[in-house]
Amino acid sequence: MVLFLLTFSVSVYSQTFNAILKTIEENNKEIQAGNKFVESKTLEYKQDKKLAGPELSYGYFPNNSSVPGTKEVFEVSQSFQMPCFYRNQAVYSNLMINQEELSHLVLKQNILAEAKSLLVEYVYLMKQVFVADKRLKFAEDIYNAYLIRIEVGDANALEINKAKLHLLQVQKQEKELRTSIMAVKESLKNLNGGKDLNLSINDYPNENISELDTLLFEKLTIDPELLYNQKVVEASKKNIKLTKNLQLPNFSLGYGSETVVDEKFRGLLVGVSIPLWGSKNAIQKAKIESEYYNLNNVSITETKISDTKIQFEKILSLQENLNSYNGVLGSVNIEDLLNKSLESGEISILEFFTEMFYFYEIYDDYLLVEKEYHQALADLYKFRL
């Protein structure tokens, strides 16, 4: 029976985790809202690349006491920065767009990581239910057998009570598991935009751990949380240049006309604005902010590397424990041996249930270690989602 419990899932068709996560990605309302937010911010930053619109002014002055007639004034002008400002502004805007995209990717990965964690929990609970159903059938058979035995005087009240208590305990566990499964399904439905999911998965994804150096390189290369902070640092450095550009003269070029009675005056308008106040503080502020973002990025990167190493060692330890459980549980059919010993009279009903509870505890520990192993893998590879 134990061998069957360890291998029951491989012979049944199951969905892949990726297929379910893809469905959740498409239906999740928070991810959909995030997509719209990124679209709006992209348009906003693209707008920042463009020149401000031209300025138009018109004046109308009726007759006065000294000069008869009406005076009209019209002006149109366009302000602009030095060319270097627009080059740096375009790069800065692109960096800000990249930040929004990466921030959304982090949001999406957090949601999918939550969903994957729930799927791991779902598989774990389904495996527990599978075992609980077998235990329930076995407990019912034992209890019914002792009901018959006590009628013919082949058993005592203590033995029948023990069998009944065992049955009640297994029934309670089975009900609690099904309640937990319903809760997990409801949580997944919520992540799927309120739509039901066809959960036909019955085993964990087949994932293997990479070498630590390979894993660290991959994480440092594609982890959106790290890439986001790198873009923040790049943008802060570009902001220093933009702030310096804003301290350069600001020019305006335009056309103006003035009409007084029959006299008209027309010509070009040229203006220049020279920032004089606060330029030093503005540049200093931008530099300090850039230093902050750079140090923060270094700190986050170092923490990521440290956390990854800890996760890696934890997975290796869980993998070793899992292999040990597989080796022991896969080699002996304990339930069958105990049942034969009970039938032959080698052990009493009390000894039988004591050993059975011990075996159940060991097998439940095995299922828990298996879940923790796959949950740790899911946490480690979250950056791939």
How does this structure look, described?
The protein is 70% helix and 10% strand. It has 10 helices and 4 strands, in the order H-H-H-E-E-H-H-H-H-E-E-H-H-H. It has a 4-stranded antiparallel β-sheet, with no helix packed on it. A hairpin with a 2-residue loop joins strand 3 (250-260) and strand 4 (263-273). The two termini are 37 Å apart.
Task: Write a short abstract of this structure.
With 385 residues, the chain is α+β, with helices and mostly antiparallel strands. It has helices spanning 2-7, 17-27, 29-48, 83-151, 157-191, 212-222, 224-245, 279-329, 334-344, 349-380; strands at residues 55-61, 71-80, 250-260, 263-273. It has a single domain, classed as Outer membrane efflux proteins (OEP) (Up-down Bundle).
